[in-house]
Specification:
InterPro entries: 4Fe4S_Fe-S-bd, 4Fe4S_Fe_S_CS, PSI_iron-sulfur_center, YfhL-like. By secondary structure, the chain is α+β, with helices and mostly antiparallel strands. It is built from two helices and two strands; from the N terminus they run ββαα. The chain has a two-stranded antiparallel ribbon with strand order 1-2.
């Protein structure tokens, strides 16, 4: 699944630089995650880095975008041309 940022986001700016796929960007009110670029850090790290640094725990899995580990790995390969 892609991750999402909920409205509990406090715009602390720590998640954006942690994303290896540049999937996180400032939105109109809070940061947002581009689901087409989010691989949950599959291919880069063992755990999603944005979740690790988020001080308010506002980055859950997006239930509207279910993806298997294999799908996330394939997306990683496409994004990185690996």
């Amino acid at each position: 699944m892609a991750l999402m940022i909920t409205d509990e986001c406090i715009n602390c700016d720590v998640c954006e630089p942690e994303c290896p796929n540049d999937a996180i960007s400032p939105g109109e009110e809070i940061y947002v995650i581009d689901p087409n670029l989010c691989t949950e850090c599959v291919g880069h790290y063992d755990e999603p880095q944005c979740q690790q640094v988020c001080p308010v725990d506002c980055i859950p899995l997006d239930p509207a975008r279910p993806e298997t580990q294999q799908q996330l790995l394939e997306k990683y390969r496409i994004i990185t041309a690996a």
